[in-house]
């Protein structure tokens, strides 16, 4: 049994098209997942700007065989992960059926309100009420979900400034994991005994909680055939002013993958300021095949089979 996937967007934060991003791509997060033995069943992870091109391909290829039935799993609702939705042609076609999954919002807005709310005259010339496809929204928490046909989905909250889910997809003994936007857990309490507000007990508990969450984070990826992990920064950049922004470094993503026994690691969510040449330099520094772990840079248009 196989899982096939294609990257339609690998950037973080904002699209960055231009002559310096041609090879790695300038679209934000969107991943197409297919199951060849299940009549090419389709799952999509995130609706970044790459979703527009995927939608065009779906209309040309899938719709020719009949109405589209697909599921979109949103990792979270930051704009770079949902901005492609209004430009996703399948939502305008009668007969198509789309189910959109995403983390529960504990604020007043629902998942539908946040995603569908982009289609208002304030932001867009078409209203949500005018969409012709049947669209259902399912809010997710941590847990395991049976998607049918032998496909299972496990979810885990990641460390990001808004509720953000990592996904673990299991099918026929194959495991695909994603951690699109996350950074290592750390102790948020004062740890310097000489600093005002230091409390030894709180400092100790903070260390224990951070260590426990990092351990659970790695267990979530254990044994994955492929892990797609946030690596927006180098470790030097991360420590120089990006703490708390909700993203990881190359060094930490690689360390997590090694400890979790992952077979292949895709470095993902590239910083929009990185040029192709800079990503080539980083690939030369970080990508290899040592210790049974294959490491590579995710690239728009790249297709993989596990």
Automatic annotation (TrEMBL):
Source organism, top-level taxon: Bacteria
InterPro entries according to UniProt: Metallo-B-lactamas, RibonucZ/Hydroxyglut_hydro
CDD domains: TaR3-like_MBL-fold (cd07715)
Domain Metallo-beta-lactamase: 27-224
Pfam assignment, any one: Lactamase_B
Protein's recorded name: Metallo-beta-lactamase domain-containing protein
